Amino acid sequence: MGGHRKNVRPENRGSLIQKESIVARQNSDRPRHFVQRSIWVGLVLAMCCGTKSHAENPPNILFIMTDQQHAGMMSCTGNRWLQTPAMDRLARSGMRFELAYSPNPVCVPSRTSMMTGLFPSTLGFESNGDAQSARIPESVLQHTMGRLLRQAGYDTVFGGKTHWARGLNRGTCGFDNLTRNDREELADACVDFLRQEHTKPFLLVASFINPHDICYVEIDATIKRYELPPFAPGARVEREKIAQAVRLAEQAKRQGNFDELCPPLIENHGITEDEPQAITVRPTRRPPPGEKQARHVYYYMPDYVRQEWTEDDWRMHHWIYHRLTEDVDRQIDVVLKALQETGLDKNTIVIFTSDHGDMDGAHKRVHKSYFYDESARVPFIIAGPGVQSGVDREHLISSSLDLIPTICDFAGVDIPTGLAGESIRSLALGRPVPNWRKAVYSENGRGRMVRTARYKYNLYKQGTPRDMLIDMANDPGEMKNLAVDAKYAEVIAEHRQLIRDHVQGHGDAIFRKYVD
Q1: The total number of structural domains that make up the chain
Q2: How does pLDDT run across 410-432, given as a tens digit for each residue?
Q3: Distance between CA 352 and CA 382 in Å, rounded?
């Protein structure tokens, strides 16, 4: 195969979609607009992108992802309370991006963005709960991650957790199924795949579940506290993983070295000054009526852990979260060693990230879906032939949205016009990229976030105050909301305009009324 790589300038690739983007969620009296715009996007994507590979020796792509791992949960970041040798080794050999943010810090929206290259709101949803309302046109399905590379001659294989919006599955995303297991069996299946004879380049996705098991710590504690029915009683493997971590903690206590091994309360464990009400309100506004049900745990849990958990409770949560991260690191290590032993590492680009993080006690919160860094900022590493080693602390990365453009760029595949992300291949290769984005955005059911070089600004749908402004340079723990200070009015106005432009440019019909 010959020819040249077709690169589309970042400032041009998004322009068409910004003028007339997909708008999946419409008012009930406007269904025709959605159909018309979906057809338009299909025509745009069909006309403005190609899928033929131009690389003479296209590399293999190994995409490894974890679930619910925040950016600080690797020992290479300076976290001395855990050991992640596989992730550390990958970071040493490649480029680790410090400012990588999830476009929506919860499972289904973030993972859907990975496969489609579009913001969840563009597709008509913004949370796990409304993922069934997503509308994904055929034009978008034609340019999912797996289909793009399969059309370019790649073998495309997916193993592990999917958890995508309605309309997406392994087939529609262009993948053959490796295994549905997302733990040790997934690691072993990846090894078997890597040891096969490969006559074509491959895209192998290994989607591991942990440290997501941490969710059951606070869920089960809340179930017990409020005497609710069992939640997900079939999740035996998850609870056994937690039990193993607890047994290790008990052993450390007997040996008298638990305090030396278990992380203390984190520095930003306290509640942010002038924290917006949208963060503090319960997921549902009214107490669950009638007979107690397991799903009511989500009503009780946020206030329960914030108000009643002791320092020992929070430290045990830290301990378990760290042990679960070490557990998935061991599984990743199995895959990376097989890659090296087969010699495939010489022509394989490895990309590692997570769908979102976990609050892990920051601001006395657990779980995900917040714009705080512990929930929204994730690890992001690229390694492989030609990739520079180092840490990038400057460039803002959209972790899920930048995946398809980056993978296409490495594979020599034309990047579809209209995607929300950018290729970071040049950054990984150590090349200057003029006019890199000045801001990165995130969504959730409460509001919208924009992160710029110095500030993080959140605009919420309701509550007082509606704004949250953090000076990330001087307050990385996000402990003081500057939006209540009148001297920051100009900064707030600038960032609110960024969100307004973003909402308009990406067809975010859900949030449009809140910025207008």
Answers
A1: 3
A2: 999 999 999 999 999 999 999 99
A3: 6
The answer to whether the CB of 329 falls within 8 A of the CB of 86 is: yes
Tell me the whole-structure pTM to 2 decimals. Answer: 0.89
388: exposed, middle or buried (Cβ count in 10 Å: 0-12, 13-18, 19+): middle
| Domain span including residue 252 | 219-320
Going by C-alpha positions, the residue among 127, 116, 111 that lies closest to residue 161 is 111
178, 227: one domain: no
Q: What angle separates helix 215-226 from helix 236-255, to the nearest 10 degrees?
A: 90
Q: What is the 3-state secondary structure (H, E, C) of 291-329?
A: CCCHHHHHHHHHHHHHHHCCHHHHHHHHHHHHHHHHHHH
Asked which of 268, 299, 320 is the last residue of a domain, the reply is 320
Q: Which two tokens stand for residue 228?
A: 């609710």
Q: Are residues 418 and 453 in the same domain?
A: no
Contacting residues for 167 by C-beta, under 8 A, at least 6 apart: 134, 135, 136, 141
Q: Which residues of the chain have pLDDT under 70?
A: 1-55, 283-287
How many residues are recorded in the chain? 516
Helix (H, G, I), strand (E, B) or coil at 365: coil
Q: Write down the residue that tokens 């801001």 correspond to.
A: 439
The pLDDT value given to residue 284: 61
Alpha-carbon distances, residue 317 vs 153, 280, 423, 462, 500 (angstroms) = 45, 21, 36, 31, 38
Q: Are 162 and 149 in contact (CB under 8 A)?
A: no
Q: Are residues 273 and 401 in the same domain?
A: no
Give yes or no: residues 257 and 315 share one domain: yes
Buried b (16+ CB within 10 A) or exposed e, 97-125: bbbbbbbbbbbbbbbbbbbbbbbbbbbbb
CA distance 344 to 26: 47
Q: CB neighbours of 134 closer than 8 A, spacing ≥ 6?
A: 24, 112, 120, 123, 124, 125, 165, 166, 167
Please report whether residue 3 resides in a domain.
no
